[in-house]
UniProtKB/TrEMBL annotation:
<dbReference type="InterPro" id="IPR020672">
    <property type="entry name" value="Ribose5P_isomerase_typA_subgr"/>
</dbReference>
<dbReference type="InterPro" id="IPR004788">
    <property type="entry name" value="Ribose5P_isomerase_type_A"/>
</dbReference>
<feature type="binding site">
    <location>
        <begin position="99"/>
        <end position="102"/>
    </location>
    <ligand>
        <name>substrate</name>
    </ligand>
</feature>
<protein>
    <recommendedName>
        <fullName>Ribose-5-phosphate isomerase A</fullName>
        <ecNumber>5.3.1.6</ecNumber>
    </recommendedName>
</protein>
<feature type="active site" description="Proton acceptor">
    <location>
        <position position="108"/>
    </location>
</feature>
<keyword id="KW-0413">Isomerase</keyword>
<feature type="binding site">
    <location>
        <position position="126"/>
    </location>
    <ligand>
        <name>substrate</name>
    </ligand>
</feature>
<comment type="function">
    <text>Catalyzes the reversible conversion of ribose-5-phosphate to ribulose 5-phosphate.</text>
</comment>
<comment type="subunit">
    <text>Homodimer.</text>
</comment>
<comment type="pathway">
    <text>Carbohydrate degradation; pentose phosphate pathway; D-ribose 5-phosphate from D-ribulose 5-phosphate (non-oxidative stage): step 1/1.</text>
</comment>
<feature type="binding site">
    <location>
        <begin position="86"/>
        <end position="89"/>
    </location>
    <ligand>
        <name>substrate</name>
    </ligand>
</feature>
<dbReference type="Pfam" id="PF06026">
    <property type="entry name" value="Rib_5-P_isom_A"/>
</dbReference>
<comment type="similarity">
    <text>Belongs to the ribose 5-phosphate isomerase family.</text>
</comment>
<feature type="binding site">
    <location>
        <begin position="31"/>
        <end position="34"/>
    </location>
    <ligand>
        <name>substrate</name>
    </ligand>
</feature>
<dbReference type="GO" id="GO:0004751">
    <property type="term" value="F:ribose-5-phosphate isomerase activity"/>
</dbReference>
<dbReference type="InterPro" id="IPR037171">
    <property type="entry name" value="NagB/RpiA_transferase-like"/>
</dbReference>
């Protein structure tokens, strides 16, 4: 049990989400510290006899899932997932999300798109009135990143190339990430369409219509929001 209050909220939201996983399900495994609590909890259920297969959304989650004994498969083999449980950097009252703080937005969005029920688990601080205090990650092909950055600058989105130590951060798919400021943007659907249409943009961390359930840890309880 976590002793850090924010991490404890992540943990109890994660444990609550396990109730949605039933025998025989194909489960998408999210990425990040909140999703890691869920993966560990699922590992305990598997050790007690629950039969599921997981599809991880990142190399880090794959490593953890193997460590805790969750049988894994690929999206190709699973074809469609029953449920995916993942974290978020922000969510609003319309179940819209910013994701990708951990850099796994591309595979996370692919899993979400191929899943029947997407559940987001989060600590209470992730709930916002308006998305955008957290910078929006935009995943870009390395070759195009400088030219995309110029375009985003011209759109007044203040792109910043994500770094790790003194090198550009590289995603599991070998791409770069530009973090942009969208706080003043009202029409996120139009923004997302514009971003995706720039050659070399692979994906954005805006998840506008994938989520149907959000489980929030608040102190020692959880609240479940359903669309
Ligand atoms: O989108 C993500 C990774 O790409 C994570 O779900 C998001 O960054 C939240 O992370 P955490 O649970 O550690 O707060």
């Amino acid at each position: 049990m976590s002793s850090n209050p924010k991490d404890r909220e992540k943990e109890i939201a994660a444990l609550e989400s396990l109730k949605y996983i039933k025998d025989g399900m194909k489960v998408g495994l999210g990425t990040g510290s909140t999703a890691a609590h869920m993966v560990k909890g699922l590992g305990r259920l598997v050790a007690n006899g629950l039969q599921v297969v997981g599809v991880p959304s990142s190399d880090a989650t794959e490593t953890l899932a193997i460590e805790v004994g969750i049988p894994l498969t690929t999206l190709d083999k699973a074809k469609r997932l029953d449920v995916t449980i993942d974290g978020a950097d922000e969510f609003d009252g319309n179940f819209q999300l910013i994701k990708g703080g951990g850099g796994a937005l591309l595979r996370e969005k692919i899993l979400a798109y191929n899943t029947d029920i997407n559940i987001i688990i989060a600590d209470a601080a992730k709930q916002v009135e308006r998305l955008g205090k957290f910078k929006l990650p935009v995943e870009t092909i390395q070759f195009a990143t400088t030219s995309i950055s110029k375009i985003l600058e011209e759109m007044s989105l203040s792109p910043i190339l994500r770094m790790k130590a003194d090198q550009p951060y590289t995603t599991d798919e070998g791409n770069f990430i530009l973090d942009i400021d969208i706080f003043d943007v009202d029409d996120l659907t139009t923004l997302n369409t514009k971003l995706i249409s720039i050659p070399g943009v692979v994906e954005t961390g805006l998840f506008l219509d994938t989520t149907s359930i959000v489980i929030v840890g608040q102190g020692e309880t959880t609240k479940t929001l359903k669309k």
